[in-house]
Design a protein that fits this description.
This protein is α/β, with parallel strands linked by helices. The protein has 5 helices and 4 strands; from the N terminus they run H-H-E-H-E-E-H-E-H. Bound molecules: NADP nicotinamide-adenine-dinucleotide phosphate.
Length: about 140
């Protein structure tokens, strides 16, 4: 079984970002050094980290561990059609990323993604990514948290 931790930065008025489709990266600027280190230590303590395709589009995140010691988690991004920006940082920095697409994704798009360094593409689900099915795949690969 995969143990899932959800971690969200939420403003005091209940916002997850500074506006619709705006990057949430601006919230990180309000952190002190201790909180920044804690946040990244959480990454280091987990086997994998997952964000949706929308976050890759708006934030272009790295999802690596930079403000604390420890290993990078495996990055996982569900994107039903595999339509992510080809220049996204997590597709080009050489750290491992698993893109999870549905069976509706086009083979040509998958091949383009697979040509990136250390990017793996997994199909899971019919029209959309099957998230419970994805958890079973991750569990079988030894990703526990
Ligand atoms: N405050 C925070 O902690 C925090 C953290 C991260 C992001 N954010 C903010 O959140 C916003 C982005 O949010 P978002 O609503 O776009 O959510 P998201 O979770 O980043 O991405 C949602 C996308 O994931 C894809 N997806 C694939 N399979 C799915 C499935 N089975 N179920 C649902 N989605 C699936 C869908 O794209 P496809 O249709 O292409 O499959 C869907 O549109 C940005 O403003 C970002 O800055 C805030």
């Amino acid at each position: 079984m995969v143990e899932i931790t959800t971690l969200s930065e939420v403003t005091i008025d209940g916002k997850l970002s500074l506006g619709a489709t705006a990057s949430s990266k601006g919230l990180f600027d309000f952190y002190g050094d201790d909180l920044r280190a804690w946040f990244h230590a959480q990454r280091a303590a987990h086997d994998a980290i997952m964000v949706g395709a929308g976050t890759v589009l708006s934030d272009d995140p790295e999802l690596t561990v930079r403000h604390a010691p420890g290993p990078n988690p495996l990055r996982i991004v569900p994107s039903s059609m595999g339509m992510l920006p080809r220049d996204a940082k997590l597709l080009n920095d050489g750290h491992p990323t698993v893109l999870v697409v549905s069976r509706s994704a086009k083979e040509a798009d998958i091949e383009a993604l697979k040509s990136k360094p250390n990017v793996e593409v997994v199909r899971c689900g019919g029209r959309r990514v099957d998230l419970p099915g994805l958890m079973n795949i991750l569990d079988a690969r030894g990703i526990k948290a």
